[in-house]
Amino acid sequence: MNFLELCKRVRQEAGISGTGPSSVLNQGGEMRRVVDWVISAWTEIQLTRKNWMWMRGSFSFQTVANDHDYSASEADIAARFRMWDRTTLRLYKTSEGVANEFYIPFISYHDYLMVYMTGTQTPTRPVCFTVAPDMKLLLGPKPDGEYTVRGDYWKASQTLAADEDIPEMPEEYHLYIVAAALEKYALYESATEVLARARQDKRFYKNQVEATQLPPMEMAEPLC
Fold first, then answer.
1. What is this structure's pTM?
2. C-alpha 177, offset from chain centre
């Protein structure tokens, strides 16, 4: 369902009279509230987890000699960057091709400062990385030439704005948004029966989404 269809479904489930909204734009009164409830519901669903599978993106960029820090935009991520996926970074010397690629591990920012930003540093092939407080990707050591860095990142929340905007989560779960928005309507109107139904539906869809749209759980590494 697109944004407008979601709003119409919420109005229908809430028992609000009429056939609207006719658009998500320039609404007032109760239809404005329906639109806002859908926007808020979708934003909150996205924020409940930082690693929904539909919010994963990929990047690839080339390093510059002696340049160790790269912002999201410098990594060719145009918009909606939230955080790096620290488990997916790979690197290869561009001139040698992907056969030269290997995984580079994440180290803590503190360890990076101690090793790669203390004293004199000699540029060479990067073997690890960290993330700075300003969310820049820091390679260690500084690259001595052009390398291709590839990996994944997590997107910031999508904001619904136009009638035709479609939530990025799989469509079979779009009623999760309807249930979450309907809950907001019920709380606003003190509609106890609607609230109970909305919360039941919300729990159902939340369980379904979490079962299929989160990375699989992995066993922790041994402590020693």
1. 0.88
2. 17
